[in-house]
Amino acid sequence: MTQHLAAPSTGTSDDAPGHRSGWWQDAVIYQVYPRSFADSNGDGMGDLEGVRSRLPYLRALGVDAVWLSPFYASPQADAGYDVADYRAIDPMFGSLLDADALIRDAHELDLRIIVDVVPNHSSDQHDWFRRAVQDGPGSALRDRYHFRPGKGPDGELPPNDWESIFGGPAWTRTTDPDGTPGEWYLHLFAPEQPDFNWDHPAVADEFRSILRFWLDMGVDGFRVDVAHGLVKAAGLPDIGSDSQLKLLGNDIMPFFDQDGVHEIYRSWRTILDEYPGERIAVAEAWTPTVERTANYVRPDEMHQAFNFQYLSTFWDAAALRDVIDTSLAAMRPVGAPTTWVLSNHDVTRHATRFAHPVALGTQLREPGDRELGLRRARAATLLMLALPGSAYVYQGEELGLPDVTTLPDEARQDPSYFRAAGQDGFRDGCRVPIPWTREGCSFGFGSGGSWLPMPLDWGGLSVEAQTGVAGSSLEMYRAAIAARRAHPGLGAGSSVDWQDAPEDVLVFARPGFLCTVNTTGSPVRIPVRGSLLLASGPGTVTFTDTDSPGADGVQEAELPADTTVWWTV
Question: InterPro entries, alphabetically (predicted)?
Fold first, then answer.
């Protein structure tokens, strides 16, 4: 078991007396997608030793914690989110000794480690499921999943009308040991990912044990995959709709966001609280409203929940202000920090999403205007890092990486790409390995190429190419995170003070700090008070008429198009 961190929160709670303290309240957390971060052995696949070798880079970036996507033993039908053994490392990523060394090194650098846990479903190669299929109907192990007889004279139809997120029915029929068609099993994602039955006590017992295993290894917390999906409505009722299921919908489904999930997370919280060092749980909960999301972070449940409503908001001032207000208002009563995130391993990178004149969703096929997308992405980042709460950064966004929209069909590996419907299947574009050096077969990712092809011009976007270069995306991220840590008015808190502003411009104050955001495609003049701290754009913030403030401390500044500027006041 590694020595555990116990550093206090670096931010301030500007307006919430009695707000719970904790390092997660204002943390900047960096998501590592291990297969695409760094390859230590030249097999084209990133691994834990590769992550470990790059921890000093993450320390220099200034983040507080590192969230690792799954590295467990898995057939990799869905990039490791199909887990065959929750207590083992897949050989492609290394071993438990590598995991232990990574955790120890991270703690030496004052970095915390958060790992994924996948409790909604396992791999179809998990020992429980393999034995359940082999034993046939009546096996006690089948009760740990959702096995059901089919409908129709010969059971040839699925038990209900539920659809898989990846497209097609959420049910697959088994073959009995004697070779005849058998029962069906439920999988809300790929057929290789059967859903656990959380009504069975053995499932709950197993996951409490899994949590303790990794907490004993020294991890600082868990990102809970599909946290909203564990409990299914009694009787597994039909939906009565033929529209394709989406992760973020407007209705509560009989398999998503059922109230019973909260009992599970209350039991998990008691385990987390037994361990020193403020261990946390983070919910990946796709709910109809941010108010429903707040249920997952009540004081006796999880500590954070991803704000997917914010991630799904386009570069529009009115929409952004609305989602910011709604998010802060929803979290305030439960005393939890609001989280902010712009990109992750499941959505098109925001440098590409914002490269289009209008909102087109979170999975795109077209690159759009690269210059526009990068300018807006940088501005969106400074807006995000100025907001009260905790922020998540997805690997490579600090380099301004766009989505790779030109991957050939034969290179794609997203399972939903090969299905008839469901998610668009273009998640591979945000999972292309990140570039570290200007040159090399995979720009420093590894010596043996990369599992997804990297664009030929990515050397210019690499860590090496941007380090020390004034105005680069990487140096902007470093400066912003450092300023956020140093400024007493940034970090934790639960509200912002909106100021009067022209149309399509956002201006808000926090203690000793002002954030101005121009979401238009043209320069905008606004009166400001204070000194310029940081700007997102390559354009220069200019002052009209005079370089000195008036007697009241106010001066008129011209903000370049699609730019966020920070001011100290």
Answer: GH, GH13_cat_dom, O16G_dom_2
Q: Which residue has the tokens 């149309």?
A: 503
CA–CA dist 497, 477 (Å, integer):
24
Give the global pTM.
0.94
Which of 26, 78, 225, 414 is flagged as catalytic? Answer: 225
Q: How far from chain centre, in Å, is Cα 121?
A: 19
CA torsion, points 174, 187, 222, 294, in degrees to nearest 10? -150
- Strand ranges inside 333-455, DSSP E: 339-341, 390-394
Name the nearest CA neighbour of 308 among 281, 349, 346, 340.
340
Q: Which among 31, 7, 46 is positioned nearest to 339, based on CA atoms?
A: 31
For residues 147 and 286, membership in a common domain is answered with no
Q: In this structure, how many other beta carbons lie within 10 angstroms of the beta carbon of residue 189?
A: 24
Taking the C-alpha atoms of 252, 253, 254 and 256 in order, what is their torsion angle to the nearest 10 degrees? -80
In a domain, 414, yes or no: yes
Give the pLDDT confidence score for residue 7 in this predicted structure: 44
Residue 412 placed within a domain: yes
- Per DSSP bridges, beta strands 221-224 and 112-117 are parallel
Show the tokens assigned to 396.
């490579």
Smallest CA-to-CA distance from 189 within 46, 309, 286 is with 286
Q: How confident is the model at residue 538 (pLDDT cuts 50, 70, 90)?
A: confident
Examine the residue annotation and report whether 274 is marked as an active-site residue of this protein. yes
pLDDT at 430: 96
Catalytic residue among 127, 274, 300, 325: 274
Q: Is residue 450 part of a domain?
A: yes
Distance (Å, whole) CA 554 – CA 468: 33
- Whether residue 140 sits in one domain with residue 167: yes
Q: Residue 279 belongs to what domain range?
A: 28-122+200-235+244-482
C-beta separation of 538 from 472 below 8 A: no
300 part of the active site: no
